[in-house]
Amino acid sequence: MDFTLSNEIELLRKKVEIFVTEEVEPIASIIEETDQIPEIIVQKSQELGLFGLSIPREYGGLGLDMVGKCAIYEELGKTHNGFTTLIGAHTGIGSVGIVELGNDAQKRRYLPKMASGEWISAFALTEPMAGSHASAIKTTAVRNGNKYILNGKKHYITNAPEAHVFTVMAVTDPSKGAKGITAFLVEKDFPGFQIGKVEEKMGLRGSHSAEIILENVEVPEENILGEMGQGYINSLKILTNSRAGLAARNLGSCMKLLDYSVSYAKVREQFGSPLIELQAIQHMLSEMSMQIELLRSMIYRVAWMTDQNMRVIKEAAIAKLYASEVYNKIADMAVQIHGGKGYLKEYPIERFYRDARITKIYEGTSEIQRNIIAGELKREHTLVEV
User: Fold this and answer.
1) Three-state secondary structure of the chain
2) Residues 169/235, Cβ–Cβ less than 8 Å
3) pLDDT per 10-residue tile (average), the chain, 386 residues
4) Does the CA dihedral 183-309-99-154 come out positive or negative?
5) What is the predicted pLDDT for the residue at 131?
6) Pairwise CA distance, residues 295 & 252, whole Å
7) What's the pLDDT score for residue 231?
8) Could you tell me the pTM of the whole model?
9) What integer pLDDT is reported at residue 384 of this predicted model?
């Protein structure tokens, strides 16, 4: 396995590092206060090509492989997680389905606008009564001539208020269960499509999640994404493909928390010496570093396997699960090292601590990841009598 970045990707990584350090992080407090990503930051992200990380060059994107995307996500993870989620949800679950499953006409219509950031994308699977049990969705799509009429509600949809195109899962044949679900590309301007309640969240300020309401929304049959009845299976593939990238964003956040913690421990004195001279603090910093290195190796292995078109269902689930566990653990230790300052909104540690919690829930809860891992183990191993 070779994780060496090309000169082109390394140059982009460095540009993103500078952008994050000099332009995004200094206005993180503004994002927290206003719950908005400043337009200038969105524009500069567009100029860097960040909205087109997953989109092939022929459609105006950067066309990065998974290893390259993880390198960029790692840098993005070092700053405000709300901003990172805007980019990550668009280039991950929002884009991957169209790139991998879309036909030529769909790609020509949507991908150029998505690559430029003119159009933001979103992925709509979760419903009020279908979260982890995703195959239990109730949104329906009934054929009417050369169109499908969609009715139902989705909720917790990341990027919903800003998005122009949604990958929506709907039931086309209730008698077939999970095999009766189909994916549709739905535009925000289709009559009957509405944005419902925008959720007030614990963290991820600037990244907006909302319900979407579908009331007799007419979707042309040419907007079916992939094959009929394959929507649920394809949604799982989309989520699997995005997990290494999400883990890489968590890795970047962990690295930033370690940097903050080491810097603070060097200057903060207690009992007559800097905190970093205390064994209890040294052990926490060592634990952070160890977990980060283990996580990095895991993520880039999964990314490389993805680029080799290998089966990564188990490995991607492990990476997502472990990344969320490590991020939450390191955020907790960072608060402890910073003491009272770690609990104040004036300092970024508190922000990372709140933002970390969602990583155990979105794009597949920790419990679902464990189910996936167990399922793959069952598939891989035959029963051995003892």
Assistant:
1) CCCCCCHHHHHHHHHHHHHHHHHHHHHHHHHHHHCCCCHHHHHHHHHHCHHHCCCCHHHCCCCCCHHHHHHHHHHHCCCCHHHHHHHHHHHCCCCHHHHHHCCHHHHHHHHHHHHHCCCCEEEECCECCECCCHHHCCCEEEEECCEEEEEEEEEEEECCCCCCEEEEEEECCHHHHHHHEEEEEEECCCCCEEEEEECCCCCCCCCCEEEEEEEEEEEEHHHEECCCCCHHHHHHHHHHHHHHHHHHHHHHHHHHHHHHHHHHHHHCEECCEEHHHCHHHHHHHHHHHHHHHHHHHHHHHHHHHHHCCCCCHHHHHHHHHHHHHHHHHHHHHHHHHHHHHHHCCCCHHHHHHHHHHHHHCCCCCHHHHHHHHHHHHHHHCCCCCC
2) yes
3) 88 98 97 97 98 98 97 98 98 97 98 98 95 92 98 98 98 96 98 97 97 98 97 96 96 98 96 95 98 98 96 97 98 98 96 98 95 94 58
4) positive
5) 85
6) 10
7) 96
8) 0.95
9) 52
pLDDT (0 to 100) of residue 134 = 86
Q: Which residue has the tokens 């009929």?
A: 228
What pLDDT does residue 213 have? 98
- Phi and psi angles of residue 274, each rounded to the nearest 5 degrees, phi first: -60, 150
Tokens at 47, concatenated: 């100029």
189 CB-near residues (< 8 Å, 6+ apart): none
Distance, CA of 163 to CA of 93 (rounded, Å): 13
Task: Give pLDDT, residue 382.
Answer: 64
Q: Kindly state the tokens that stand for 89.
A: 């949800």
Can you tell me the distance from the alpha carbon of 243 to that of 226, in angstroms, rounded to the nearest whole number? 21
Please check whether residue 24 is in contact with residue 85, taking contact to mean a CB–CB distance below 8 angstroms: no
Q: Which two tokens stand for residue 289?
A: 């570093």
In the numeric block, which tokens belong to residue 279? 């064994």
10 Å CB burial of residue 161 (0-12, 13-18, 19+) is: middle
Write out the catalytic residue numbers.
Answer: 363
Measured at the CA of 167, the angle between CA 230 and CA 34, to 5 degrees, comes to 150
pLDDT of residue 386: 47
